[in-house]
Amino acid sequence: MMPLSNLRDEYDTVVVGAGPAGMAAALSALRTGVETVLMVDREVEPGGILNQCIHNGFGLHHFGEELTGPEYAQRFLTDLLDHHIDIATDCYVLDVTPDRLVTLMSPAVGVRQVLAGAVVLAMGARERTRGAIRIPGQRPSGVMTAGLAQKFVNQMGLLPGKRAVILGSGDIGLIMARRMTLEGVEVPGVFEIMPHANGLTRNIVQCLHDFDIPLHLSTTVVEIHGRDRVEKVTVAPVDDQLRPDLSRAHTVKCDTLLASIGLIPENELSQKLGLRLDPTTAGPVVTSTMETSRDGVFAAGNVVHIHDLVDFVSQEALLAGENAARYVTGRRPPADNIKLSSGANVASVVPHTISSDREHTVYLRVRKPMEKSWLRLGDVYEKRLRYVVPAEMVSLKVRPRFLEHFHGDSLTIDIVPRDEPGREEP
Fold first, then answer.
1. pTM for this structure?
2. Is residue 207 within 8 Å of residue 178, measured between CB atoms?
C-alpha cells in the first residue's frame, strides 16, 4: 500500500477496485507487458468482499482447491506485491474522464490526478436494500442487508440480533442463515418471492437443508412491525403475478430482518463516463475483449454482470487486464464482427459481441428453471443441457470452427426444451 503523495503522474493501466476482479485485472495487465499499474480501492485492505467471506467454497475452478474468501484474496495479493504493483487503499476514485484522466481522493493526502493509458473498471456490486422493493411499515433498527450482517459477524464480531428472518434466497442470505444459526441465532425461515430459489444448489443444501432451516417459496414480507426495534414481520404467499394474498398472511416474530434480494452493479463511474449500459444486467456493454463503448476503458466482474462464482470473476478480469495491456502496447486484436442477442429463456448474454476468428467464453443467465434443454447458438451450434436455473450462470465455449460457414453479423442464443431431436454438435 502506498500514500497518494508517492503516485506517478501517469500509469499504463489504472484499475478501479481491489476486489477479486481488480486484483486479477491488475496482475494480468502487468504480465501482458505494461510497465506501470495502479490499483485503487476505497477500503483499507485489498480483497473486497472476499475479506468477509470466511466460509470455504472458493477457488475450485481457478486454483483447483477449496479455499476461504480471505485465502483466495491472499493468493492474488501475494502475486501483486511480488510484481510491485502500486496499490492505493483508503482512496476514492471521484471521476474518470473520456481521455482517462483519473481523479483520486484520500483522507490523508487530498486530491490527486493521474493519467491512464487504459482503465479497468472493477468496482463490483452493491446490495439491493429494503427501499428497492418498498416494504411497508415502520423503519425500526434491525433491518439490514445480508452482506452488512456478514460484515458485522465475520469482521467485527457483532451479532445483529437473536431471531432473524431472511428475506430472499440469494447466496449471501443462505450463507448468513447458516452463519447466524452457528452463532446461536434462531432463524425461523427464508422467504423467497419467486417460485424457485435464487442461490446456488449447494448453498440450499449446505446452508438450509443441513440445518433444518425452512425455505418458503412464492412468499414474501409485506410489512415490518416495530418502532425502535423490529418486533415481527408479516409474510404472505404470492400468486403467479407476484401479488401478495393478504387473506393468507401471517406474522413471524423476530428482532432482525436480513434482506438478500439481489445485487446491482456499482456503475456510477460508468454512467459518468457515458458508457453504454445493458438494461438487463445494469452493467456496461462489453466486447469479447471486455472493452466498453469508451475507447481504452475495460470492465470485468460484478460491475458488468452478477456472477455466481468468484472463479469466473477472476477469469473474466484476467481477460480484461490482458486486453487493457494490449491496448496500451498497440497489440489490440481485430474488432468483433458478430453481435450476440438473448433469445428464448435467456435473460442476458456477456460479452455482447464476439469475433469469428477467436475462441470465446460466453456467459448467460436463464429466466426460469428448465430440465433437459437445448442451448442453441443461432443455427450454427447446439448443446444439450441437463438443467438450468436462474441462480447459476451457463457458460458456452464458442470456437472458430462453429462459425466457419456463418456469414451473418448477429446470432441469437436460445435455451429451449429438448422435445425434439437436436442437430449433431460440430
1. 0.94
2. yes
